[in-house]
Amino acid sequence: MALTFHGNGDPALAHRLLDQVEQAGARISVFVVGTWLVSHPEMAKRILQGGHDLGNHTMHHKPMRLLAAAAAHREVGDCAAVLRRTAGSPGRWFRASGTQKTTALIRSAATAAGYQTCVSYDVDGLDWQDPNAATVQSAVLDNVQPGSIVSLHLGHQVTVDALPKILAGLSAKRLKPVTLSELLG
Questions:
Q1: pTM (2 decimals)?
Q2: What are residue 152's phi and psi, to 5 degrees?
Q3: Strand arrangement, sheet containing 53-56
Q4: How many domains does the chain have?
Q5: d(CA 65, CA 68)
Q6: Whole-number mean pLDDT of the chain?
């Protein structure tokens, strides 16, 4: 199974979360928002040095389903350019912002920027709503199964708080968090 994270928010929280994941021997995939990486270019290196995947989550995190074609192409292409500058590669994976499901337009924008795969998720950790840690833990552990892709966020304290019990719960279920590259090949 794969733990995936939207890369945005306080870098100190991201560092704490990455440290927790690595201490547990897990690997994750981070879909970065381009503006976050412009403000914190060191995060690309930090994520990659931990053995994690780095992917594109659009430049400004706009609701992709509402964008005209030119704007959608800019959102994906501009973030890919930031990834090239900061990480040396645009990454392999794209996740649309503001929607769990892609459209033909979103897939076209991703393809034009060089992404063959748009990645969604089947488990929403609900951490973006900033509930308590127990809610996030339950949202993940009650719904995860082999092959699941879980959506979480780097920039939320509740995610950092919930992560140790999530990792322990995954281990108890004999599920190992791997990168999308490992899960999807």
A1: 0.96
A2: -135, 180
A3: 117-118, 93-94, 53-56, 29-32, 2-7, 149-153, 123-124
A4: 1
A5: 8
A6: 97
